[in-house]
Specification:
There is one protein chain. The chain has 235 residues and is of the alpha+beta class. The chain folds into 2 domains: 102 residues, Four Helix Bundle (Hemerythrin (Met), subunit A) (Up-down Bundle); 105 residues, TolA/TonB C-terminal domain, CATH 3.30.2420. Helices cover 48% and strands 16% of the residues. The protein has 3 helices and 8 strands. The strands form 3 sheets. It has a 3-stranded antiparallel β-sheet with strand order 1-6-7, with no helix packed on it. α1 runs antiparallel to α2. The longest helix has 62 residues.
Length: 235
């Protein structure tokens, strides 16, 4: 019987090279230039958000000012109504209009406050290089580059030994450089036999030897740290 390995995963980045050559140094300079340009774009985006926040605050202050003016107008109408107990429909209408204006100004202030908080949340929620993020539609999963060499080594693999069969799933934490920082067993072989336990441990150790291309943003400019699943098929 033979031991076949296949990988089912969605995970993170590539490890660093050994000794840089002139071409590699030029590539690194190009990469640093791209990262600098990306940082400028991120800063520009942050400045746009700050301008939007400033605009929202200005609108909120204006709404407050209008609400304060409406409140004063209401107080003035109340005083006028008190002085003129026999006031007519015009005064009552002005009072109702002032109350309506104050209510609308209050609702607008609440809306602007919620919009301001949302903008602040968006500004603080942008993940940076190397941050740990969950895999999703906006993240390109990591891709293994040495899958064929990551083979679980089983002690009970003699010619006459009974080989364990089934699927073992290991979760690996992949750094922004593509290195495996941690590995943990998610699904082992059925049962609690020594062979099943050995197969799970061997797959965890094999997963630690994997090297990945980075998990990154859709444009590939920002690399992230992610947890990603690795499946081993034992046959």
């Amino acid at each position: 019987m033979r031991l076949a390995l296949s990988l089912l995963l969605i995970a993170l980045p590539l490890a660093a090279a050994k000794k840089p050559t002139a071409a590699q140094l030029a590539s690194q300079v190009k990469q640093l230039t791209e990262e600098r340009d990306d940082l400028k774009q991120r800063l520009a985006a942050m400045e746009d958000l700050q301008q939007e926040l400033a605009g929202a605050k200005k609108a909120r202050d204006l709404a407050r000012s209008e609400g304060e003016a409406a409140r004063k107008a209401t107080e003035l109408l109340r005083a006028t109504l008190k002085e003129n107990q026999g006031g007519g429909d015009a005064i009552l209408k002005d009072l109702r209009d002032a109350r309506q204006t104050a209510s609308e100004a209050k609702a607008e202030a609440a809306r602007l406050k919620a919009e301001n908080e949302e903008l602040q949340h968006k500004a603080s929620a942008i993940p940076g290089e190397g941050d740990l993020v969950p895999l999703g539609e906006d993240i390109q999963p990591a891709r293994p580059i040495n899958l064929n060499r990551a083979t679980p080594r089983l002690k009970s693999s003699g010619f006459l030994a009974t080989r364990p069969k089934g699927v073992v799933v290991v979760n690996v934490l992949i750094s922004g450089k593509g290195d495996v920082l941690a590995a943990r067993l998610v699904q082992g072989l059925p049962g609690d036999s020594p062979e099943a336990r050995e197969a799970g441990e061997a797959c965890v150790e094999a997963a630690k030897t994997l090297v990945f291309d980075p998990a990154a943003s859709k444009d590939g400019k920002t690399r992230f740290k992610v947890w990603q699943g690795v499946g081993f098929y034992l046959d």
